[in-house]
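Listing S7. Sequence submitted for prediction.
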Amino acid sequence: MLLIPCPWCGPRDETEFSCGGEGHIPRPADPAALTDPEWADYLFMRKNPKGVHTERWVHSQGCRRWFNVARHTVSHEILAVYKMGEPPPETGADSKQNRT
């Protein structure tokens, strides 16, 4: 079980949260101008790294706010939690990825 530190509520059990997928994927400026394959690529193609990965989470059973998490996909270690709109903090991801 993960203990996720909500930026507003503090550490809570993972059952209070819902994952919203990969973080930092900008929405296309003009979605109507995209071809079907381009739109499908935006909707469905995501990274699936072995190592540190940024994700969007919502505290669905708490404050209902969205935030970002930098998490190691093998160990599930949470390296950073930060509010939406903030840049990802330095997590030492390169050194951690080289150890796995």
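Caption to Listing S7: primary sequence and predicted structure tokens for the chain studied. The chain has two helices and six strands. The first helix runs from residue 36 to 44.
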